[in-house]
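Allow me, if you will, to draw on your knowledge of protein folds for a short while. A protein sequence and the structure tokens that stand for its backbone fold form the material at issue. I would ask you to consider whether the tokens describe a fold that such a sequence might reasonably adopt. Thank you for your consideration; the sequence and its tokens are set out here:
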Amino acid sequence: MGEDVGVDRDLDNSLRYDDKVGEAHADGQIIGGACWDLRQATSTQIADNLVFLTLEITPHAHLFLDFLSNMYIADNSNYSGAYDSQIKAAFGNHGLVTVDVSELTNWNMVAIPAKVLSYAKSAVYPMCNPSQIEVYQNGSYTSAPDPLSNGVGYFTKFPSAQSIRYIGDELTSQAMSVSTGWNIIGSISYDVPTSSVTQNPSGIVISNYFKYESGYVSTTTLTPGGGFWVQVSQNGTLTLTASPPKVANTSSFYAELDKFIVSDKAGGKQEMYTRPVNGIMNNEIENIELPPDPPDNLFNVRFHTGNYVQTVDVSTSPYKLPVDIKQAAYPITIKWEINPLSKGSYTIELGASHPQITPFSGKGSILISDPSQTINIMIGKSTTSISRPTTYKLEQNYPNPFNPATSITYALPEEGYVSLRVYNLLGENVATLVDGMQTPGYKTVIFDASRIPSGVYIYRLQTSKFLEIKKMTVMK
């Protein structure tokens, strides 16, 4: 097999550093070494047959990358891709990586994580419209230069969900120029903890790192093939290097915050946090910003302040925090997880002229069907009377009439068994929403009536000390 792929074939035998043996070898010699590793991972017969099938596709493949690309084709055509992982590992042993990245339909943040054969837009992303491969410069999106390059992150629109395969020499380190403000940086061939990114000048990063997955998501790992938002205080460079992880413990910080998740029916989702404090000290971290709006009318939700983490001083007066919803597919759901030790008490106001005001605590959610409805989260100083109801109460569902879903809010002054059920006018139970022990607080559940016909229904809240019934109307 060595003479079939070795230095005596018509290969470009420029020297290449072989990590496995720590020496520079010609391309053909390294292919021979990779194919030998493939023999060990599969069998002599399978490996040799893959080599011969590969050479039949392109008898005079001039480059290492050509040979590997053709071997994947041979495997897919003759073995239905059964040896994909073994091929990837065998050639990866010798410095040639294959990075597979799953992309969603519509816009994704991407980067080229290897030294590929061609950086042309049509070669890297042949399924995409070249004009919809965009970079962020000077505060706006613009079509990326062609060819593309390593170290740069791109917002790219994909016509459908698919896996993108990057084949090339491994990229173990990459220095990336960044400008004051927000930047989209690229990635390398291996995971890089954000705590390992080298900053020059030191300390210029002033934000979290964010990726976009149907909404902005804060991340502590820069994964191969991804593009990532980061904000810097001045021009400089950020260098990614494949190295042992330096993991920063950020979980405790977020665990202490109050969490909000806004989602829509199309799968968009955005997490945000609030941090109520009784007076802000000079050395406290106040806010963490979200990146700029994504391109092309993507799902985009944020506090009106633009912050991912919003610190609120509740020592003086209640704080009004509007929520901005852009390009969402209604109905939307707002979920919350309020820390039991939170220093804030919460209500949500829906609508402007005659707002629906609902206090909430603990864990819960509310459904919003009207895109024109304003949303404000009111945050005040936590008190026992606000954070814990003094009486049982069942609120009228909202909206009502509704289609297909509505929110039902109720108040529990003490812990106990709770039953919340929905009945038709014949007295038949059509849905059980709650059936179990619950802690005190303001609770909200969502009732989805998509599987029942239009009509008037009764919902009943029952505990050992309380029973109340209300009507609601499903209108389809």
In short: The mean pLDDT is 87. The CA atoms of residues 373 and 436 lie 33 Å apart. Helices lie at 2-5, 27-41, 44-57, 64-79, 84-92, 121-124, 251-255, 384-387.
